[in-house]
Amino acid sequence: MSVFFFKILPKGCISRFVGQMTRTKFSALFINWFIKKYNVNTDEIEYPENGFHSFNHFFTRKLKKGIHHIDREKNAVVSPVDGRIDECGPITGTRIMQAKNLDYLVSDLIPSDCHHLFIDGFFITLYLSPADYHRIHSPLNAKINELIYAPGKLFPVKEVITRSVARVFSRNERMITLMESNFGRCAVCKIGAMNVGRISVNFDTIESNKSILRRGARKVYGKMAPLVRRGDEIGRFNMGSTVIMLFEKDMFEPFMLRKGESVRVGQKLGTLKQKEK
Q: Mean pLDDT over residues 230-253, rounded?
């Protein structure tokens, strides 16, 4: 399917329709087909007592206890998702690499006055395949200062698109969690995509892609900032996409990150560096 075709499709309307359909009882009929097509590891799934009542219920499934091992190292930063490392590296000034010869601005990804925090920082882009577990966890011990919902396009995030369509991640709909640790600030950017019915978070009622007349939202928590521990669940994709993590300059030391490598929730991605007093 050509890139031009994806550009002209009414991606928002299609995605909202698909999202609604995946919540119907009828959609549960497609679960077994999906498992076979994408080779989902059913041994890891925590099955509800009465089964899955819809496809979305299955897609946002829990996994059995003990499947994910959260790294115990004191200053560890762990993967927030089961997925694949698509890109990682230093943020060059205000530019983040999307793919070879394509990049985008931090200020486009995070539409607020706090984007400057990540100048010359570090980023990790994690892609979630259809077969992956689609809940999102905290990569570190922190408090959640802000939640930003930025409406946008809903391009697919498959490789053919990310390597040919400029600024896909900063143009697509996204939900951004801004976190503060004792070592500095981190942003967990949840990127929507075509057929991503909704992005939701555990600590607030704000959700993405809920209606045709959508507006952005920004919530600053102040003294009511939720506290999360490394490995705590903080959100989920209702259908899958991409997570981009940003770290402040001199805050994060990567640990054996390799493009194309699969990672699991809780797996160590790096360590937090103690800042000078």
A: 92
Report the percent of the chain where pLDDT is more than 70.
Answer: 82
Report how far residue 18's alpha carbon sits from residue 12's, in angstroms, rounded to the nearest whole number: 10
Q: Indicate the DSSP class of residue 59.
A: H
Is residue 250 flagged as an active site residue?
Answer: no
- How far apart are the C-alpha atoms of 236 and 44, rounded to whole Å? 18
Say what the pLDDT of residue 205 is.
Answer: 87
Give yes or no: 79 in active site: no
Catalytic residue among 82, 86, 138, 200: 82
Tokens of 248: 């402040």
At 108 the three-state DSSP class reads helix
Give the SS3 label for residue 176: strand
**Other C-beta atoms within 10 Å of 10: how many?**
10
**Interatomic CA distance for residues 33 and 275, integer angstroms:** 50
Listed in order, strand segments (DSSP E) in 202-261 are 217-220, 227-228, 233-238, 242-247, 252-254
- 63-98 pLDDT, tens digit per residue, is 999 999 999 999 999 999 999 999 999 999 999 988
Whether the full predicted model's pTM is greater than 0.85, yes or no, is: yes
CA distance 26 to 28: 5
Query: CB within 8 A of 110, min separation 6: which ones?
Result: 118, 148, 176, 178, 187, 189, 246
Sign, Cα dihedral of 198, 193, 174, 234: positive
pLDDT in tens, 180-225: 999 999 999 998 876 555 788 999 988 876 654 456 788 999 989 9
Of 132, 137, 138, 208, the catalytic one is 137
